[in-house]
Amino acid sequence: MVNTFWSETVQSTQLLDTSRKEKFNVYNRKLWFNLLHIQNNLKILEVGCGSGHFANMIKKYYPTCDVYGIDLDNNHIKFAKNESKRLNIDVNYQVADVSHLPFEDNSFDIVFSHTLIEHLPFDDFIKEQKRVLKKGGKLVIMRVDMIKNNDKPFLYLEDEINKVYSGISYPKIAGVGEYVEDPDLTMQRLYQYNFKNINFNYNRIIYYMPDVESKKQIAISQIERNYQTKLSYANFVINKSKVDSNTKNKLLSLLKSQYEERLRLLVAKQKIFDFQSSLLITISANK
Question: Which of 73, 128, 256, 272 lies at a CB distance of 3.0 to 4.6 Å from 6, suitable for a disulfide?
Fold first, then answer.
């Protein structure tokens, strides 16, 4: 059965991909790899892999690893397969449900997820992951803390952009993020499932701060990735809400002008010190 609920209703594959590429990139990859406990020659499964960016990055920098990715959304998996082919990276992607994983018992050294646990009852989320982990294998759960946030975005044309968004009807999706809980509760649940060496990390991932970068190209790439994320979100909202062409053109024009002004200021060496980040919660444990 074809399932495209998430990509068509909640977050398009393109938006998911650009957002993940902005936050997890070539410059901060070592931090992510350390949090995921990645080493050579491991068999690794990402559940809820989305566009495949995490799995592709692991395979790119750890080519001796055997990497798998599953997602329930067909559009996500199709995109992930095409992206891995484009990058000439061999990742095994499958459409599958985290509550019914198509793998043998004790198959993987690492099983990890990013922003998945908050959308499922814990039993559905954890039972199969524990089953397919090898004895002593590592479970890694990542999610973003959406409450604690003190970003400072580039504010040029921001009021005008928000005014356009405020006039677009974009209904909330029931059930999304329904199972968010505090980290201590998640760790207690893992303890009840007999996981060992339960650990917790809380990191601020600063992925956008162009004015402090010593290399101009890194700063430019941050601004460009930030623009692509905003553009992907705008296009998803536009397509989902079926706005008129005038509203669409106005929004896209404002975003482009904002991007061009930010680049101009960078080139002119006028420092703004704007920044964006994610507060990342990481819980790990051994089977």
Answer: 73
Residue 242 C-alpha from the chain's centroid: 26
What is the four-CA torsion angle of 96, 102, 105, 110, rounded to 10 degrees?
A: -40
Q: What is the layout of strands, in order, in the sheet containing 276-286?
A: 92-95, 66-71, 43-47, 108-114, 133-144, 276-286, 196-208
Rg for the chain (alpha carbons), in Å? 20
Question: Using CA atoms, how far apart are residues 130 and 124, in angstroms rounded to an integer?
Answer: 11
User: Helix, strand, or coil here: 176?
Assistant: coil
Classify residue 148 by its DSSP letter. S
The CATH number of the domain where 280 resides is what? 3.40.50.150
DSSP state of 100: B
- pLDDT per position as a tens digit, 24-71: 999 999 999 999 999 999 999 999 999 999 999 999 999 999 999 999
Sign of the torsion angle spanned by Cα atoms 121, 126, 127, 132: positive
Q: Supply the DSSP symbol for 10.
A: I
Contacting residues for 257 by C-beta, under 8 A, at least 6 apart: 157
Q: Which amino acid is at 162?
A: N
Maximal CA-CA distance, the chain: 58
- What is the Cα–Cα distance from 167 to 184, expressed in whole angstroms? 39
Distances in Å between the Cα of 77 and the Cα atoms of 49, 88, 93, 132, 261 are 8, 16, 6, 20, 36
* Closest of 253, 273, 252, 250 to residue 262, by C-alpha: 273
Structure tokens at 91: 């990742």
Task: Report residue 251's pLDDT band, with 50, 70 and 90 as the boundaries.
Answer: very high
* Confidence (pTM): 0.92
Q: What angle do CA 123, 125, 133 make, to 5 degrees?
A: 105
Neighbours of 197 (CB within 10 A): 10
Number of domains within the chain: 1
Domain of 151, in residue numbers: 5-286
